[in-house]
Amino acid sequence: MQLEFYGASHGVTGSCHILRVNGHSLLLDCGMIQGGKRLEALNEKPFPFAADEIDAVILSHAHIDHSGRLPLLVRRGFKGNIWTQNVSRDLCGILLADSAHIQESDAAYKNRKAKPGTAKVKALYSSADAASALKQFKGVPYQQWQAVLPGVRVRFHDAGHILGSAVVELDLREGDIHRRFVFSGDLGQFDTPILRDPQTPKRADLILMETTYGGRRHRDRQATIDEIGEIIKAAAETRGNILIPAFAVGRSQEVLYQLATHYDSWGMNRFKVFLDSPMAIEASEVYWNNPQVLDKAARLVRDDAGEMPLLPNLELTRSSDQSKAINKYKHSAIIVAASGMCTGGRILHHLRNNLANPGTQVIIVGYQANGTLGRRLVDGADEIRLFGQTIQVKAKIHTVGGLSAHGDQDDLARWYEGFDNKPAVYLVHGEDESKLEFRDYLQKRCGVLAGLSEPGKILDLNSISAAG
Predict the structure, then answer these.
(1) φ, ψ dihedrals at 343, nearest 5°
(2) What is the CATH number of domain 2-216+405-463?
(3) Which of 68, 74, 199, 331 is deepest in the core (most CB within 10 A)?
(4) What is the per-residue pLDDT for 263?
(5) Half-sphere exposure of residue 379, counting CA atoms within 13 Å on the CB side?
(6) What is the DSSP letter of 80?
(7) Which CATH number does the domain 221-403 belong to among 3.40.50.150, 3.40.50.10890, 3.40.350.10, 3.40.605.10?
(8) What is the pLDDT of residues 220-239, one digit of tens each?
(9) Are 183 and 400 in contact (CB under 8 A)?
């Protein structure tokens, strides 16, 4: 009974871990590595295991840094089931299809620009690969035990990160050995709108725990909401647009929720609002159609609204022509578009058209990984390169971390304190500094010394003391 660390051991993307029980191999997530060309090139490398030797996959949630290499895994020979929460299955139908389209489009673009005689670039995977992977998905409701392999059962708890996100609880039996293993997946903040609070299983022998924001505390959420309101009010005077790079799943929906909730107090009637992302539009429909996993307040808002969308001045721009038409708005437009780290998608076109305007406001509402364009903007870049052009950054860049879909160190520790016992912990999914800071914080607050993951490190679960 062993756990092998692989992806997201020295960063926050590329989630992938291997659990071996009763001679079977179980993969926890199979995510895309993100964060610039050097890191993203690693996605093309062979897995450190044979894909056809993996017996099953358990997926914590739909975000591409957790699910994005599943089509590649299938193309390389994986034949088993992919177990995930019901809504995550629905969202993956959207995200994986979009990811495949991006792979194919990027490859086609590079081949068009390549010099004659240059070897053709191949897409990491195709739309057909994504469709094949989706056929292997099996959805499971929250709080229901599901047998996935001999001696292995899984139960999903709400992680409060995005809709369908799950804390993965695994019941493992091998001969006389019985272990309860928990993978946190990505944990959300407590007391946030739309989503329910992260749930903690009762007991565990070992926890694999994310630390994306393990080294910091988020700004007070209400202070963040107030700041966004002030930016929006000020933008009416600066003669510029407001750009909000937002992940298509999770952040886009919360941004729209906040704009609708504060429609009158923020003077939203002065603006035209665009959700410029086909994927975010589809994901919003999934949110709308699954009220059973929303929190109570969000269910009431949805029921009162009657039908989507909540904002009377919201335009859903699905086609590229509709997206291009936004360019005619030189001011009084709020544009919510993916990707959240500005690594691709329609937000890049809006940045190209608006960054040089001193009246433009860019509101960064999510985590920006090292190496991404979003991180360069947050770090104060004076100019950037986009589509072969040098763009001067004269827009005002605002970072409002209080809307993060990830819990901070207090949220993470609060989630850990929900266990009846004090399980052993190994930390993953964080920059090295963040992991070290959270290890020290967890030891001081909870009296437990967490271990640190390393790629290729193998942990013998038989040596972990049982919780009893």
Answers:
(1) -95, -5
(2) 3.60.15.10
(3) 68
(4) 92
(5) 13
(6) S
(7) 3.40.50.10890
(8) 888 889 999 999 988 878 87
(9) no
